[in-house]
Design a protein that fits this description.
By secondary structure, the protein is mainly β. A hairpin with an 8-residue loop joins strand 16 and strand 17. The radius of gyration is 30 Å and the shape is globular.
Length: 919
């Protein structure tokens, strides 16, 4: 067992070293030298000997469904890494590679903003959740109504493809739904499902669904690609050719991809689009269903992605505009299509780098039990100020919707394979918002119908260019009647929004607080302590503290309290019809009212109007701190002679005695959807270099960074220091072909055993640039053999009351802790029992009590974790025994070294001792 203490690898980077995090590979950024107090890990946790490094292992008491959010191990609030899931659905392993000595404190398991290794204590008197908001006025256009065309359905299956980083080929199959009785080319809508179980055993129980690929004998593939047939039929009836592609081959392997499979999914999407482009030119070569369908118009493509499929769709749109590095990509042909827009349903956004110049709609399910932090909001917030801002980026919040029911093959009662409601609810203490019988919870059919309507709305706006449907998506407060009874709220950035007040852009706040979206310090964090639930706007990335993400926090205790947001450079609201603000208040709160005023650089001020905001229905398990869009007309400012070309500040004044609110941004707004043209931008991709440490000398290596495209832009770069875990960052201006991100790392060779040391580099777009591969770095690989471990008895035959003692020795010192795990095994003859050893030793080692008396080999959780510290060559281990008044024969105990699965290792090291009666 190895845990690194190495500190001699240093990064002499142009950037200061940044905080320790890991990505989707199963390795920890920091290894902590000892477990929690008393040497015991919490229940469910253990440390195993891995093949190349020790592994931190957590086993869940109940099966953890294969989902889209990443499972993360955390210690003392810090991200340790993303573990590899075992096929049993209960066990997760994280390789402990790299470099910080300390304690494994407060170990936790998180996924998508919710904790997995414990359940929140039940509230004895829960606060009743707010009722659903009143229905919004109906939009004159209802995109959820079926069109006039009949449809036909079929499928195709092509030869599987190999994608970079995956050892097993990925399937090229899809289900097609197309209109009939129509001539001429028709736009194409492509669906990509998310990460779900890949295989199941027919007629089996829920335990027989698995994430393997290819499917084991006796099991068949889960048909996740058939889960959007309702959506496909609706779009096909309206004249769209639709195709839903399968990606089980990616789902079964994406745990080993540093980006969670985003690049692989992009490659798969573009491989299918290339096929459709070929078939459009040579229809005689197409599969039968494609020949029967109208010709696909590849100049009008809508991509729809669910969960990790959403992140894949975003990456495909990016890669279609700004080509990725060839060695990272699975598609190498020309781009013969145009992505008109994307729909992202409950998406992940591990990279947090949305493509800025492709319009998008993000669907946020209010009861998402998988990606429960609703991190997909970053596809809206993360586009601000990155490019021209002409593309509309909309988010719709679907109250009462979960993650799975947008796909019928993930929905109980409709799916062929085992399926479940991803929002786990305690029957004894049902969630007041998302419990199965809550007034706000949608049924599966209600949810899917709402999803279909808003997918069709995006198609009608982004592809067909029908601006009459825009009020459903852009915060104008309209509803699609076909989605009833679902309550669907929207807000947006981009399109015809002009200049505005952006907390990330350098503002001064008085009477309020400029707060940090992600910061471990409660005094700086936007929500801080005491918040029930989380905010999608503040979804955490891979660093514990993140620069450049802010909001304005308002808290008042009297009527008329004023918060002023002043900009460094005046903004122009000229030509705008209204000021659009994105504000949120605590969930379940009602009646918050604020007066909105602006002041120009000449000191002229006008009160524009009053806005009212109610909180969304929420509980401590939901992400309901979500901004509503409210607008106030600029008429009063014009009447007051305010120079709207030169506005310097925005005031929000309370109209209630107390309350709190958060301002995300405010923009000049006017109706309409402008044409979008993607800007020529530089693209940044971080690679990973793996090198041997060598036996001597100092070598300098540089992290591979590729900047392609055109122009210049700014990105924020983080360099992770595995020795400290501290996070720092720096803004860098990048240009194609340049070496602006220069990260040299010095490696000193030696001949002593250690573990691999990874240096991770993270990058995020800020302005005038895009990012593809957002994480990479340098891994320094240990190239020295591990020392040999031996056991020498020091006192292996003692009288009761004395201590058994052995010495663990190494053939030579190592630069890491060398640890071995031993478990008790049955012996022939009388065995040492729980009443023969010191009760404090027994409790500290296993948490067990002496009663009832039982052999040590029958004690659950008893093991010896024997750790030789770095630089030392031996460790003595003792088992204290107790003297009793019972006459008995000699008793023996035997502890045997374990294998990777914590089972006794045949031929492994053994600690054997005998205790003689003292009477």
């Amino acid at each position: 067992m190895v845990r690194t203490r190495r500190i001699w690898v240093t990064a002499a980077a142009v950037l200061a070293l940044a905080g320790g995090v890991s990505g989707t590979t199963a390795h920890a950024q920091q290894v902590l030298a000892a477990p929690e107090s008393g040497g015991k890990l919490p229940p469910g946790w253990r440390i195993d000997d891995g093949r190349s490094a020790p592994e931190l292992v957590w086993r869940s008491g109940r099966q953890v469904p294969m989902g889209d959010a990443r499972v993360e191990f955390r210690s003392d609030g810090r991200l340790l890494g993303v573990p590899k899931p075992e096929r049993d659905g209960h066990t997760f392993r994280l390789g402990l590679e790299a470099a910080r000595t300390g304690d494994l404190k407060d170990l936790q398991v998180w996924s998508g903003g919710r904790r997995l290794d414990t359940r929140s204590p039940a509230t004895t008197s829960p606060t009743p959740a707010a009722l659903p908001p009143a229905p919004l006025p109906a939009d004159p256009v209802d995109p959820g109504k079926p069109g006039r065309y009949r449809t036909t359905t079929g499928s195709y299956q092509l030869k599987s493809v190999r994608l970079p980083g995956f050892s097993v080929p990925v399937e090229m199959s899809a289900v097609v739904v197309a209109p009939t009785g129509i001539s001429g080319p028709r736009p194409l809508a492509l669906f990509l499902h998310g990460r779900h179980t890949t295989c199941y055993t027919p007629h089996g129980d829920d335990g027989e669904a698995a994430g393997a690929w290819p499917c084991p004998a006796g099991s068949i593939a889960v048909p996740s690609d058939r889960g959007y047939l309702r959506d496909q039929r609706l779009l096909a009836s309206q004249g769209y050719v639709t195709v839903s592609i399968a990606a089980n081959g990616i789902n079964g392997q994406d745990w080993q991809a540093e980006d969670g499979g985003a690049q692989a999914r992009s490659s798969l999407i573009r491989l299918h689009l290339a096929q459709w482009a070929d078939w459009a030119r040579h229809p005689q070569r197409a599969p039968r269903i494609v020949r029967e369908a109208p010709r696909a118009d590849l100049s009008r493509v809508l991509l729809i992605g669910h969960s990790r499929g959403g992140e894949g769709v975003n990456r495909a749109a990016l890669d279609s505009l700004y080509p990725p590095p060839a060695d990272q990509d699975g598609y190498h042909g020309a781009v013969r299509w145009h992505i008109s827009g994307t729909v992202l349903i409950g998406p992940t956004v591990f990279g947090q780098n949305p493509v800025p110049d492709v319009p998008s709609l993000t669907v946020l399910p209010g009861c998402d039990g998988d990606v429960s932090d609703l991190q997909g909001e970053v596809y809206v917030d993360g586009t601000r100020a990155v490019s021209s801002g002409k593309a509309l980026h909309s988010a719709v919040f679907v109250i009462g919707a979960n993650h799975n029911f947008f796909n019928t093959e993930w929905t109980p009662g409709q799916a062929q394979a085992p399926a479940e409601d991803d929002f786990y609810d305690d029957g004894d203490h049902p969630d007041p918002v998302c419990g199965k019988h809550a007034a706000t919870r949608l049924t599966a059919d209600q949810q899917h119908r709402a999803g279909s309507a808003y997918i069709a709305a995006a198609a009608r706006l982004f592809v067909a260019g029908d601006d009459k449907v825009r009020p459903l998506l852009d915060g104008s407060g309209r509803r699609a009647p076909s989605a009833d009874p679902a309550r669907v709220l929207s807000h947006a950035v981009g399109a015809n929004r002009g200049a505005g007040f952006l907390p990330d852009g350098g503002v001064t706040v008085t009477g309020g607080r400029l707060c940090a979206a992600v910061d471990p310090a409660p005094a700086r964090a936007c929500l801080g302590q005491g918040a029930e639930g989380v905010s999608p706007h503040f979804a955490q990335w891979e660093t514990g503290r993140e620069a450049g993400r802010h909001a304005v926090a308002l808290r008042w205790t009297s009527t008329g309290a004023r918060t002023r947001v002043a900009v460094a450079q005046p903004v122009s609201l000229h030509g705008s019809k209204a000021l659009a603000l994105r504000l949120f208040v605590p969930p379940n709160s009602r009646g918050t009212k604020l007066d909105v005023s602006v002041t120009d650089t000449h000191g002229r001020k006008a009160t524009l109007g009053r806005v009212g905001i109610d909180g969304l229905p929420g509980s401590d398990r939901t992400a309901s701190y979500w901004a509503r869009e409210v607008r106030v007309p600029l008429t009063a400012a014009r009447r007051a002679g305010v120079d709207l070309r030169s506005v310097k500040s925005l005031d929000l004044s309370s109209r209630s005695a107390s309350g709190q609110a958060w301002l995300m941004d405010a923009w000049g707004w006017r109706p309409g959807t402008p044409a979008v043209r993607a800007a020529a931008l530089p693209r940044v991709d971080i690679g990973r270099l793996t090198v041997d440490e060598g036996d001597s000398g100092v070598r300098t290596y540089r992290v591979p960074v590729r900047v392609s495209g055109q122009g210049s832009g700014r990105v924020r770069v983080y360099v992770v220091d595995p020795a400290t875990g501290e996070a720092r960052d720096r803004l860098v201006t990048v240009r194609p072909g340049g070496h602006d991100i220069d990260i040299p790392i010095e490696v000193r060779g030696n001949t002593r055993y250690g573990t691999d040391v990874p240096y991770d580099v993270l990058v995020k777009a800020v302005h005038g640039a895009v990012v593809g591969s957002y994480r990479g770095g340098l891994t320094v690989r240990n190239d020295d053999p591990a020392p040999t471990v031996t056991v020498t008895p020091l006192a292996d035959r003692v009288t009761e009351g004395e201590a058994l003692k052995w010495r663990i020795s190494l053939s030579e010192a190592a630069d890491t802790d060398i640890a071995t795990l031993f478990v008790p095994v049955p012996v022939s003859g009388p065995e040492l029992s729980t009443k023969d050893v010191d009760p404090q030793w027994l409790a500290g080692t296993s948490g067990a009590e002496p009663d009832p008396e039982r052999p040590l080999s029958k004690v659950d959780g008893l093991y010896l974790w024997l750790d030789v510290p770095a630089g030392r060559t031996s460790l003595d281990v003792t088992i204290p025994t107790v003297k009793d008044q019972v006459r008995e024969s000699a008793e023996t105990v035997s502890f045997q070294q374990t294998d990777d699965s914590d089972r006794p290792l045949p031929g492994g090291l053994v600690l054997t001792g005998t205790v003689l009666d003292a009477s």
